[in-house]
Structure to design on (374 residues):
C-alpha cells in the first residue's frame, strides 16, 4: 500500500492506494502516529484508490480507530469500492466507523 | 539467463514400467547449474504421473515481483526459489507437477514482499483454471491462508498481539525482527494447486510450529496460538456486535471445503469451479 497525507482545516487525510495487507504493518505504524497531531479533530482515510484489503488491513483500521478514540478524534472511511467495500461490509464496519461514499 | 535440463524418467522407461512415466524439464534462472542438475536427478526419480505428461519446473534465485510475474505466465508447472546450493523442494511438489498443477516454493521473506497470491492467481487464470468472476473470492482465501502461514507459522507471531492496540507496536517490532532473522526469513511456504473440471484444490503449507485448527463454533484452547485460537475467539462477545474479522472466518465462508494436516502446518482449501 502506498499513501499520501494531506492536511485539512480540521485534521488530516490519508489517501491510500494499491493493496492494503499483512505486509503493510510497518508502513501503517507511521500512519497511526499521525493521529498524535494535537490540533486535529477529524481524520479521514480515503480508500478510493485501494484495490484490495485483507483481514489484517481491516485489523489495522481498527487499531487506528482505537487510537483515534483515545485522542477523541472523528475517524472517517471514505470512498471504498469493490472488494474493499465488500470487506468493510463483511466486518460490519458501518457500526464502528463513519463511512462515506 | 535460463537454461534447462530434461529428465524423461529414463530409468523407469527402460525398465518398461508405466507407473512413473511423466517427464520433467528443469530450468534455472540465476541458479547454479550443478544445483539444477542435482534437483533434476532427485525429483526425476521420485515423481510419478500420467504416461506422456510433461511438466516444466523453473528454479529461480533472487526472486522479485517482475521476474516471477513474467515467469508465471509461461508454461511452467512449478516455480521454486533456490538459496545458494540448497536443493530441496516441498513435499507437495511431486504430486502437483505430476498432475500438471501449479506450484510455488518460496522463502518467507520473498513471499512476504511479493504480491504472492496475486501472482499465483495470475498463473491459475492464465491456465484457464480461474475465471475473472471466480478470482476475487479464491484470491482472498489464498491470501488469508498464506498470511497465516507466514505470520503465525514461519514467523511465529501471535495473532493476539496484532489485534491489541496496546500490543501493536510490539507486534510491528517483532515482525521486523523476524523478517530480518536469517533462519525465519528463509523458512519456506508452499502453494500447490491441482484441479479437475469441477474442483480447484489448493494446499498451502509452512515450516512453523503448527497449530490446532479450532472448531467453527468456538476457540480451541489446546493448541498454540497460531491463527487458530483467536480466529474464532468469540467468548464473551455478543454475536450481533461487530467483531474482528479473521482470516479463518473468511476462508471458511468462501470455500466448499477446508482441511488441516501436518499438525496445522498445512491447510487445504477447495473451491467449486
Amino acid at each position: 500500500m502506498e499513501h499520501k497525507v494531506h492536511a485539512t482545516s480540521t485534521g488530516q487525510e490519508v489517501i491510500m492506494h494499491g493493496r492494503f495487507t499483512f505486509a503493510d504493518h510497518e508502513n501503517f505504524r507511521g500512519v497511526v502516529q499521525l493521529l498524535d497531531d494535537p490540533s486535529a479533530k477529524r481524520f479521514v482515510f480515503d480508500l478510493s484508490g485501494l484495490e484490495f484489503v485483507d483481514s489484517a488491513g481491516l485489523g489495522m483500521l481498527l487499531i487506528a480507530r482505537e487510537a483515534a478514540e483515545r485522542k477523541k478524534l472523528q475517524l472517517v472511511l471514505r470512498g471504498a469500492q469493490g472488494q474493499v467495500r465488500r470487506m468493510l461490509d463483511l466486518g460490519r464496519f458501518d457500526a464502528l466507523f463513519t463511512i462515506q461514499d | 539467463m535460463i537454461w534447462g535440463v530434461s529428465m524423461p524418467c529414463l530409468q523407469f522407461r527402460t525398465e518398461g514400467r508405466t507407473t512413473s512415466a511423466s517427464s520433467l524439464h528443469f530450468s534455472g534462472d540465476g541458479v547454479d547449474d550443478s544445483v539444477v542438475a542435482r534437483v533434476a536427478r532427485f525429483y526425476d526419480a521420485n515423481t510419478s504421473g500420467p504416461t506422456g505428461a510433461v511438466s516444466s519446473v523453473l528454479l529461480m534465485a533472487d526472486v522479485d515481483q517482475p521476474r516471477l510475474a513474467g515467469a508465471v505466465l509461461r508454461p511452467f508447472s512449478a516455480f521454486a526459489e533456490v538459496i545458494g546450493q540448497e536443493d530441496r523442494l516441498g513435499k507437495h511438489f511431486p504430486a502437483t507437477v505430476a498432475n500438471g498443477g501449479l506450484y510455488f516454493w518460496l522463502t518467507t521473506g520473498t513471499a512476504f514482499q511479493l504480491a504472492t497470491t496475486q501472482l499465483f492467481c495470475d498463473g491459475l487464470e492464465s491456465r484457464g483454471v480461474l475465471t475473472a468472476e471466480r478470482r476475487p473470492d479464491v484470491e482472498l482465501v489464498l491470501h488469508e491462508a498464506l498470511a497465516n502461514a507466514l505470520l503465525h507459522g514461519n514467523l511465529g507471531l501471535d495473532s493476539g498481539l496484532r489485534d491489541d492496540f496496546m500490543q501493536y507496536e510490539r507486534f510491528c517490532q517483532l515482525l521486523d525482527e523476524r523478517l530480518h532473522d536469517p533462519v525465519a526469513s528463509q523458512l519456506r511456504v508452499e502453494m500447490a494447486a491441482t484441479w479437475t473440471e469441477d474442483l480447484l484444490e489448493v494446499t498451502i503449507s509452512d515450516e512453523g510450529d503448527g497449530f490446532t485448527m479450532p472448531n467453527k463454533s468456538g476457540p480451541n484452547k489446546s493448541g498454540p496460538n497460531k491463527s487458530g485460537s483467536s480466529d474464532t475467539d468469540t467468548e464473551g462477545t455478543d454475536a450481533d456486535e461487530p467483531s474482528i474479522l479473521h482470516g479463518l472466518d473468511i476462508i471458511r465462508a468462501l470455500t466448499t471445503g477446508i482441511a488441516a494436516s501436518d499438525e496445522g502446518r498445512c491447510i487445504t482449501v477447495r473451491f467449486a469451479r
Q: What stands out?
A: Strands of chain B lie at 2-7, 23-29, 54-60, 78-81, 102-107, 188-195, 199-205, 257-261, 266-272. The interface with chain A takes residues 112-113, 115, 118, 136, 140, 143-144, 147, 150-151, 162-163, 165, 168-169, 171-172, 175-176, 241-242, 244-247, 249-250, 253 of chain B (CB under 8 Å). The CA atoms of residues 36 and 206 of chain B lie 23 Å apart.
